[in-house]
Amino acid sequence: MTSATSLFSPVEADLRLLTENLKQLVGARHPILYAAAEHLFGAGGKRLRPAIVFLLSRATMPNQEITAKHRRLAEITEMIHTASLVHDDVIDEAELRRGVPTVHSSFGNRVAVLAGDFLFAQSSWYLANLDNLAVVKLLSEVIMDLAEGEIQQGLNRFDASLSIEAYLEKSYYKTASLIANSSKAAGLLSGVPAEQAQHLYSYGRHIGLAFQIVDDILDFTGSSEALGKPAGSDLKSGNLTAPALYALEEKPYLEKLIEREFAHEGDLEQALALIEDSRGIERSRELAAHHAQQAVQHLSDLSPSESRQALIELADYVLSRLY
């Protein structure tokens, strides 16, 4: 299986610089926020979102060096993503993220909420300083979408009548919007035509959806060690994802367990067994593969390059996390 590290080798130096810059951007003025930022940016995430921004920046500027604005866009993208994770962890009362204690479990809820707000505010400030209205609009929309996704998820807890379409819409808001809009923004900073910028948006949208669906499958099939959080935690909290929604079509009793919010002893274990015994996981894999294939089709008008190849292979990498 290809690792994210080898996949991102065309932009390895860009990502190293990004990590250094992120710590400096947060600045040492607020020691507690700086400690939180060090904790976040040092937690060794995959850096998937900035890597896509860098790869698309290089793929759309084939014989030129990428600009300082491309680099700043990648930093803003990671800041927005990190801010949303900090807030998500507070809402979900999660103790671990990538196997590392979350900001609120290390520093308390107040600092975590403020750290998230601070990162959103910082990213907005750096965004405005790009002096590119189209890019500002794209990434401002992402910040709205993240909140919309979180609200939808909160309102739909334990709702067994949720449709796959509604699930995909929420997944777009929570995950794919940032990847789609920052992909398009990278193209706009490179000066690509409007039609091509739209293809980059579609690439990011489909990759983002595939990534989220795979994450949701892993919540059922991964080990707690690999996930960095307890397995089955989405279902337990009432967040119904593709495997559960597909399983509901085959296993009517699952609806009863969900609607009573796993109140009786053994309910959650029974629900997990019903999902495992259905085609829910298999159909979710097919859905993820569909979106990964769709993503690749939107790269056809980019000229061949190492970065374009990495973007194509990324679609396989996203799916390979399941095996």
Automatic annotation (TrEMBL):
Keywords: Magnesium, Metal-binding, Transferase. Coiled coil: none annotated. Gene3D superfamilies: Farnesyl Diphosphate Synthase. InterPro entries: Isoprenoid_synthase_dom_sf, Polyprenyl_synt, Polyprenyl_synt_CS. It comes from the Bacteria. One of its GO terms (molecular function) is metal ion binding. Its cofactor is Mg(2+). Signal peptide: none annotated. Pfam families: polyprenyl_synt (PF00348). GO terms for biological process: isoprenoid biosynthetic process. Belongs to the FPP/GGPP synthase family. This is Solanesyl diphosphate synthase. It comes from Leptolyngbya sp. NK1-12. The lineage of its organism: Bacteria, Bacillati, Cyanobacteriota, Cyanophyceae, Leptolyngbyales. The gene is sds.
